[in-house]
Amino acid sequence: MSVQYPKMTPSDVRDFVDTVVLNQVSSDAVSGFFLRKGYPAPSQQEAAVVNLVTEIMKAAAGETDVKLERVEAEFSGRVHALLDEFDDAALGDVDFWSYLAVRFFWPFVHARQHASWSAAEGKPTDLDRPDAEKLKLERYLIGRDHYQIPLRMYLRGQAIKDGDDYSLAEVPGTDFWRSQILGVRTSQYPSLARAVVRTQKDRDLGVEEQRPPGRRVNRLRSNIEFARRTDDENEELISELWKITKADVDALSAKKATRKKATASKKAASKAPTPESAVPDTSEQSS
Fold first, then answer.
1. For an engineered disulfide with 8, which of 36, 88, 98, 224 has Cβ 3.0 to 4.6 Å away?
2. Would you say 40 and 142 are in contact if contact means Cβ atoms under 8 Å apart?
3. Tens of pLDDT, residues 161-178
4. Residue 230 and residue 237: Cα distance in Å, rounded?
5. 3 state SS of 162
């Protein structure tokens, strides 16, 4: 017997962005949108999601964008614990995650990705590319990958869950979680993910510094079955990998120098006179 659960297609999400967000979203506007679409009232299980999002927004305290990484970190474990009670078929469906994001998590998406939301409302920060940030908003709402806010929080909790312990989900760094845990197969091995997160917590490598050890961990997965190893065994192994070597420092310095040179060349090119401007204007000279 097939399980029934609410869904929102990508087309529905785009309709929401075009008809609700563009006209300045509000609780009443969201409720009206779902009423027009024929969705039933939220179930008792979904009411618990409403309560959790209310708590999240109280913790957000009016902050936006990157400042809300701390709130995302703090609540990822609770998001996983609550949403993991939903049916497995729903949790495996992109359209169910889109439904959750739009109907319940929209206040946090609005705050967490405020620049993209504002662009979708018709107030882009980059006037030369007015649609770019609007398309980004769809990515934070459509539940296809770890960019989508509630799905990302769920996966963050799932990756490091150890019994009822979600404390490692609070290790900060959105880029770290996306690039080194959720965006690679590390998240499929909780004991490995916990080892990487614990070591990052201790060493606090910067975004660029994480790249070389991250590549070493990824290469190692092809030779070692991490699922068969204990947390302590994995942490001992990761401890040797998750650090910056002299070769890493040299490579990062060379990369930085190359970027600096490219930027300087680009600036110089933008200031150079064009062929047309180099030709003297003789139109007003008398014969």
1. 98
2. no
3. 999 999 999 999 999 999
4. 11
5. strand
**212 and 72 assigned to the same domain:** no
282 is a domain residue: no
Question: 117 and 109 in contact (C-beta within 8 Å)?
Answer: yes
Q: Which tokens hold the place of 182?
A: 């959720």
Helical residues (DSSP H) of 113-206, grouped into ranges: 114-120, 132-141, 149-160, 174-176, 190-203
Domain identity same for 105 and 195: no
Cα–Cα nearest to 111, from 64, 71, 73: 64
Query: 117-174, pLDDT tens digit by residue?
Result: 888 888 877 667 656 666 678 899 999 999 999 999 999 999 999 999 999 999 999 9
Ramachandran angles phi, psi of 162, nearest 5°? -130, 90
What is the C-alpha radius of gyration for the chain, rounded to an integer number of angstroms?
Answer: 24
Q: Which domain holds residue 178?
A: 171-246
The token duo for 226 is: 């991490």
* Together in a domain, 175 and 46: no
| Helix orientation angle between 149-160 and 69-83, rounded to the nearest 10 degrees | 70
- Number of domains observed in the structure of the chain: 2
Residues constituting the chain: 287
On the 0-12 / 13-18 / 19+ scale of CB atoms within 10 A, 39 is middle
Tell me, yes or no, whether 175 and 53 share the same domain. no
CA 121, 127, 131, 132 torsion-angle sign: negative
The answer on 208 and 122 residing in a single domain is no
Q: Are residues 143 and 196 in the same domain?
A: no
